[in-house]
Amino acid sequence: MPEAVARAAEFLRSGALVGFPTETVYGLGADATNERAVAAIFAAKGRPHFNPLIVHIPVEEAEAFAEFDARARRIAAQFWPGPLTLVLPRRAGAGLSLLASAGLDTVALRAPAHPVAQKLMCATGRPIAAPSANRSGRVSPTEAAHVAAELGDAIALILDAGRAPVGLESTVLDLTGEVPALLRPGGITLEQLQASLGAIAIGKVAAGPARSPGMLASHYAPSLPLRLNVTEAHPEEALLAFGPNIPAGFAEVLWLSHSADLAEAAANLFAMLRRLDRPEFSGIAVMPIPNHGLGRAINDRLHRAAAPRP
Ligand code: TXA
Ligand code: MG
């Protein structure tokens, strides 16, 4: 692995794209100071240019790229490194690609906890812009093979570290306004953030849609239609089950978690959606998931995956 990390760092410094593991999902990385490399991310993913990227940095370098107030420092000290992205005022002159923040005067920063991601950042010596390594609108990759299948042609190298342990993307928290705003539920739960920050605005941000461009209604979508909160079988459907008691009569069943454990369900969600996304089924049915803790992030992804396609 050290050799592969060194090669990946070399590719990043030369402007190429690299697939790499984080604790949440696999990222499609580029040197965040290289405008052309960042542009290549948008091209590879088919991602709309109004949707900005997360910039990955080691904890101790974060303040070079954004302005931290006391509140941001406290949150970063508590949850970094880890699955939390902070949207903060962008620091001028820090050399970040303008395309990475899609022209906004803010930047989304994350200090990942995965040891391979940390080694890669260290070896590269540059901030790494990285969205999830999937085609835009599709299911996020939790294994290196998912990255290879969807984006292999566009990537110089994929660092394989097995399954991403959290399985859902980072929580995106906007700290640019007076009241912190949850832009995307994820690996750090709303309850954890509320315990630290008090009131948090959820969903839409006062400043309008351009502030939260990634909150597209349809996202994370498999090819098959999804049916949510299912309690009765449709015989041609495959079932994503949660908890020990399931309705009978489905064509196939995969258990997000047999013991109704939300962390286990989060870790399994995207890989199981991919496994069931096969033409022999008429759709994917999903049992109800409790809407607290990580369940909020799971339900967010399920609702977007089930939303009408544009
Ligand atoms: O767990 C993760 O966050 C993964 C791994 C690879 O770190 N990355 C990821 O990136 O999920 P992506 O591009 O799929 O999602 C980034 C989200 C989008 O919803 C985007 O709109 C939002 O962050 N975002 C990025 N910059 C922003 C900004 N300046 N203001 C508001 N939202 C921003
Ligand atoms: Mg994504």
Keywords for this entry:
310 residues; alpha/beta; DHBP synthase; 2 domains; ten-stranded mixed sheet; four-stranded parallel sheet; globular; binds threonylcarbamoyladenylate; binds magnesium ion
Write the layout of secondary structure elements.
Blueprint: H1 2-13, E1 18-20, E2 27-31, H2 35-45, E3 54-56, H3 70-79, E4 84-89, E5 106-110, H4 115-124, E6 128-129, H5 144-151, E7 157-158, E8 171-174, E9 181-184, H6 190-197, E10 201-202, E11 226-227, E12 238-242, E13 252-257, H7 262-276, E14 284-286, H8 294-306
Parallel strand pairs: 1-7, 3-5, 4-8, 9-10, 11-14, 12-13, 12-14
Antiparallel strand pairs: 1-2, 2-6, 3-6, 4-5, 8-9
The chain binds threonylcarbamoyladenylate (TXA) and magnesium ion.
Provide a short characterization of the protein structure.
The chain has 310 residues and is of the alpha/beta class.
What does the model show?
By secondary structure, this protein is α/β, with parallel strands linked by helices. The protein folds into two domains: 201 residues, DHBP synthase; 81 residues, no CATH class. 28% of the residues lie in helices and 17% in strands. It has eight helices and 14 strands. The strands form two sheets. A ten-stranded mixed beta sheet has the order 7-1-2-6-3-5-4-8-9-10, sandwiched between helices. Strand 1 and strand 2 form a beta hairpin. Helix 1 crosses helix 4. It is globular, with a radius of gyration of 19 Å. About 2% of the residues have low confidence. The chain binds threonylcarbamoyladenylate and magnesium ion. The site of magnesium ion has 3 residues, from loops. Threonylcarbamoyladenylate binds next to strand 4, strand 5 and strand 9.
